[in-house]
C-alpha cells in the first residue's frame, strides 16, 4: 500500500449531504477521519464527521484552512466552482481528478467524451437560442429532450419536445442557460453500473442495478438487473473503459439505457451514486467504503454481491412510513434531515430478496 493513507488520516469531503454522510461513516469504520466542507450548516454529513467547515465556496481563507487540515480531498457534489478547486488542488490532491469532474459537469463535454471513446449515446446537439434549437430539431427530430448543459439533477432543468410546436416553451424553460438537445432513446429499462478504480489502476465494478424513476427521481433499484450475460459484460467493460480513460480514482456511477440495439450511456456521475445504495447490504464492501479505499490509496474490494436486493428511496412524506418499515427485517438508512419536503431524499431501505442469483 504505497501512497496509502494511514489510519488516523483525514479525508476532506466537499459537500455535506447524505452521500457525504455515508462516506464519513464508511471512513470511520476504517479508522479514518472526515472533514466536511459545505456552505450550509448542520447538513447530514457534518453530524457524523470529525470536523466540519461551514463557509461559502469562494471563501479563500476557509478553503485554504480546510485544504491544509486534510490529507486528500474528495467530493460528493459535482458543482463545486472551478476556482475553489484550483485553490484546494494547489495544497492537497483531489480524487477523483479534475478532468472527471469537468467532463461530467457539462452534458456536451460528457457526450463528446463518451462518443470519442466509441460508446453509444443519444444523438445530441448544442442549443443556445431559437435558431440553434430549430437546427437541432431538424437534425435529431422529435420526440427529444432539451436539458440545461450544467447543474441538472433529478430531472430538473429538462423539457420534453414531443413535436416542433413545443420548441419555444421548452427553450423558455431553460431560462437562457446553454442547453443540449437529446434525441429520445426508446429504452426498455434503465440500469446503472457502479464502478471503482484504485490509485494503482485496478478496476472493480458492482453488478448492474435496474433503476425505476418516478417524476425524474430514482424510486427503486433492483439487483440483479434484467440483462443478458453479454449485456452485463458490456456494462462492466464500458464502465471500466470510462474509468481508465479518465485515470479515475474513486467510485463512479454510469447510467445506461437498455435498448434492442445495445446499451446507451445516459450520463456519468463522478461520485458515489444513489443507485449504488443497495451495495450497503448486498456486498461485503459497499460503494462508500470502496470510494474511501480508492481515495485513500488502499486496495479495492472486488465488488462481489452476496445477496439480491431491492433498494427503495424514502422521499418526502415516505419518512412517515419509517415505524412500519422498522418493524420489518430490512435495513433502514436515514439521513437525519429534519424537514421532509416533497421530492427530498430522506433515507432509503434495502430489502434482501435472497442469496445472490
Ligand atoms: P438525466 O437527468 O439526464 O439522468 O435524465 C433523467 C431521466 O430522464 C432519465 O433517467 C431517463 O428516464 C429520462 N431521460 C433522460 N434523457 C433521455 C433520453 N435522451 N431519452 C429518453 N429518456 C431520457
UniProtKB/TrEMBL annotation:
SUPFAM superfamilies: Glutathione synthetase ATP-binding domain-like, PreATP-grasp domain, Rudiment single hybrid motif. Residues 111-296 form the ATP-grasp domain. It is an enzyme of class 6 (ligase). ATP binds at residues 107, 147, 152-158, 182-185, 190, 213, 266-267. Belongs to the PurK/PurT family. It holds the Pfam family ATP-grasp. This is N5-carboxyaminoimidazole ribonucleotide synthase. Keywords: ATP-binding, Ligase, Nucleotide-binding, Purine biosynthesis. GO terms for molecular function: 5-(carboxyamino)imidazole ribonucleotide synthase activity; ATP binding; metal ion binding; phosphoribosylaminoimidazole carboxylase activity. The keyword Ligase applies. It comes from the Bacteria. InterPro entries: ATP-grasp, ATP-grasp_carboxylate-amine, ATP_grasp_subdomain_1, PreATP-grasp_dom_sf, PurK, PurK_C, PurT/PurK_preATP-grasp, Rudment_hybrid_motif. Its EC number is 6.3.4.18. It catalyses: 5-amino-1-(5-phospho-beta-D-ribosyl)imidazole + hydrogencarbonate + ATP = 5-carboxyamino-1-(5-phospho-D-ribosyl)imidazole + ADP + phosphate + 2 H(+). GO terms for cellular component: cytosol.
Amino acid at each position: 500500500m504505497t501512497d496509502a493513507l494511514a489510519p488516523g488520516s483525514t479525508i476532506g469531503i466537499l459537500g455535506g449531504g447524505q452521500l457525504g454522510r455515508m462516506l464519513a461513516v464508511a471512513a470511520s469504520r476504517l479508522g479514518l477521519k472526515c472533514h466536511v466542507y459545505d456552505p450550509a450548516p448542520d447538513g447530514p454529513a457534518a453530524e457524523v464527521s470529525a470536523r466540519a467547515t461551514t463557509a461559502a465556496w469562494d471563501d479563500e481563507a476557509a478553503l485554504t484552512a480546510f485544504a491544509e487540515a486534510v490529507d486528500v480531498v474528495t467530493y460528493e457534489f459535482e458543482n463545486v466552482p472551478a476556482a475553489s478547486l484550483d485553490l484546494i488542488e494547489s495544497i492537497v490532491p483531489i480524487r477523483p481528478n479534475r478532468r472527471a469532474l469537468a467532463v461530467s459537469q457539462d452534458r456536451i463535454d460528457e457526450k463528446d467524451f463518451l462518443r470519442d471513446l466509441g460508446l453509444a449515446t443519444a444523438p445530441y446537439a448544442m442549443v443556445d437560442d431559437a435558431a440553434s434549437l430549430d437546427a437541432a430539431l431538424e437534425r435529431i427530430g422529435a420526440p427529444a429532450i432539451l436539458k440545461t448543459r450544467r447543474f441538472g439533477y433529478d430531472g430538473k432543468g429538462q423539457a420534453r419536445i414531443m413535436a416542433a410546436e413545443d420548441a419555444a416553451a421548452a427553450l423558455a424553460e431553460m431560462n437562457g442557460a446553454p442547453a443540449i438537445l437529446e434525441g429520445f432513446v426508446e429504452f426498455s429499462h434503465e440500469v446503472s453500473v457502479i464502478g471503482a478504480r484504485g490509485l494503482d489502476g485496478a478496476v472493480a465494478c458492482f453488478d448492474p442495478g435496474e433503476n425505476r424513476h418516478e417524476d425524474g427521481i430514482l424510486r427503486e433499484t433492483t439487483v440483479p438487473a434484467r440483462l443478458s450475460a453479454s449485456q452485463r459484460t458490456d456494462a462492466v467493460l464500458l464502465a471500466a473503459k470510462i474509468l481508465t480513460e479518465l485515470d479515475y480514482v474513486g467510485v463512479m456511477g454510469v447510467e445506461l439505457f437498455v435498448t434492442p440495439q445495445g446499451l446507451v450511456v445516459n450520463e456519468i456521475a463522478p461520485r458515489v451514486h444513489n443507485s449504488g445504495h443497495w451495495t450497503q447490504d448486498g456486498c461485503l464492501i459497499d460503494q462508500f467504503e470502496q470510494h474511501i479505499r480508492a481515495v485513500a490509496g488502499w486496495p479495492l474490494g472486488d465488488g462481489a454481491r452476496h445477496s439480491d436486493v431491492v433498494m427503495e428511496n424514502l422521499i418526502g412524506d415516505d419518512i412517515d412510513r419509517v415505524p412500519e418499515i422498522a418493524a420489518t427485517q430490512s435495513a433502514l438508512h436515514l439521513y437525519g434531515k429534519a424537514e421532509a419536503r416533497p421530492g427530498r431524499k430522506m433515507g432509503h431501505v434495502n430489502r434482501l430478496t435472497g442469496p445472490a442469483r
